[in-house]
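User: Fold this, then the next.

Assistant: Folding the first:
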Amino acid sequence: LELIPELARRTIDRYPNLRLFVTTLRGLRIDTSLIQRTDRGRFGIYFVEMGANQRPSRVTYDREYTAISQARPEDFDWDRVFEGAHWIHLTGITAALSRTAAETTLEAARQARAAGVKVCCDINFRSRLWRWDDRCTPLELAARTLQQLVPFVDLLMANADDCRLLGVDTASLSGGSAETGRQRELELIPELARRTIDRYPNLRLFVTTLRENISASHNNWGAALFDGTADSLVFAPARDGVYQPYEIRQMIDRVGGGDAFAAGLLFAMNHPDYGTLGEALEFATAASCLAHSVVGDFNFAKREEIDELVHGSGTGRVVR
């Protein structure tokens, strides 16, 4: 048993293809120097049963005994992690995996704040993952943990259900018939954002994605961003100031769409070519839209392709 780690290392040294994950990231020009390697646990995976038309997609997570679920705050050199950084992106999925993973997520947020690094957090509530404390329900566990995390956050990605987990009063932010419900939801976003920011005054930006499920193969897709400092709201995609969601009529794979959105937003917010929050939101929404058109949870769309979609090239015609 004691010799297994050394046997694994020697095997991987002889067959470098076993380092596929890190190699893949390097191939995408992503810095892998801060990836923490450990002999504890394994790599987490999940299984997706792809839906179509009226049959929904289903996700089965396989995250027990993974390396990240056994991560501890002291495993990381936080000074090195945040050296030269502007943002850190965290999600509720990591905190859901185990008590130590939740503690590590909270410590990452604390250390980021102390280092002057802004924190972006996507709540991403997954009830099947929040199981590490059998004294309470997944909802109660998520609420208790996430309400400790959000006070360190600058940019929050959440929907009304997520805000309810955070203790925000959303009881009066619903209602209307099926015909008017969608428009009512859009109209209530500013009030939802204000109530969330009132409860967590550290928040500067509140973002929510807007997915309308026509069927498993047909979604409308967009997003809204509320700037708490300016008390202003922008939607994307917008044409002549009017919100017009992307119609994704033949969805290839929606897994990773939210991550593509978050990555696009943080990229554009920190790039001089996108001078306003509205422009950054347009880029993020287009990036995520294109991610729905490829298999897998990586978004392989080029920046030029995303910009073309933002500026109206969404016909899908062959480019020769």
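Now the next one, as you asked:
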Amino acid sequence: MMDRSAEETVVVTGVGCVSAVGVGRDANWATILAGRGGVEPIHRFDASEFPVRIAAQVGEFEPARYMDAKDARRADRFIQFAVAAAREAVDHAGLTITETDYNAERTGVIIGTAMGGLATFEDGVRTLHTKGPGRVSPFFVPMMLPDMATGIVSIQLGAKGPNLATVSACASGAHAIGEAAATIRRGDADVMLAGGSEAPVTPAGVAGFAAAGALSTRNDDAQHASRPFDRLRDGFVLGEGSAVLVLESLTHALARGATPLAVVSGYGTTADASHIVQPSPGGEGAARAMALAVARAGLAPTDISYINAHGTSTRLNDAYETLSVKTV
């Protein structure tokens, strides 16, 4: 077991987010405190023939506020969200990334995504079939690649440190934060921008999840559609958005006068090795991940006062997640 006293403490110094309940950290928090949800009828495409006609969509969002308009046109929506969230997080942290401050090479980016540029992929395939291969955009591939949110954020902000994407379905963003903290602890960076970004509210995205029976069909009661652990739950609500944290070594944060907001004290990651979508019986995999994180942090289960649940509102996940929490 590694001596935790010899490790660098990793802290959060900045937060940025874009979601269906607000663009920006303050807007999100104000809406949450007001008890308002962000689920509404789908307006990004005509969903009238779909069995699922609701989603959590980002409303008033102007990508040109966060990046050059030309660059924005060459970036999928999930990339645009990531840039906006990253810029807000960096501003919130009071962080300046420059060559002259010699911190560009010590600042990295890890942004997770499950779906990547799904809208770009759909548009490209549609163009291929209706107009031929000669009309497919030369930006088709770089706009849809899962790691391009990470890549474009690093280009926009000048971060030249470790740069990669985590792609692990619903755990992608959590893995990004955990791996970013590990990157700092092993000395490969002083600062990491870490989080997740998704924009899967597209015809194929909604149709695919609906076909799997994973989505709520509470189309006439959108505000109550997502109801994890509720007896009447009938699936999750597809959403879009991004959240990015600025993680730093405590030494680096204090040296530049930053205010730590939280400590990333432990991280555990496991695999169920059981089924492509169903959790392992009894929630065994999730229980091991939580137990590892608690132990890694040097805590006891009784020290934990809040659990941020996966809470998919699906029958099996909610049942097994409950069991895993009780196990730990």
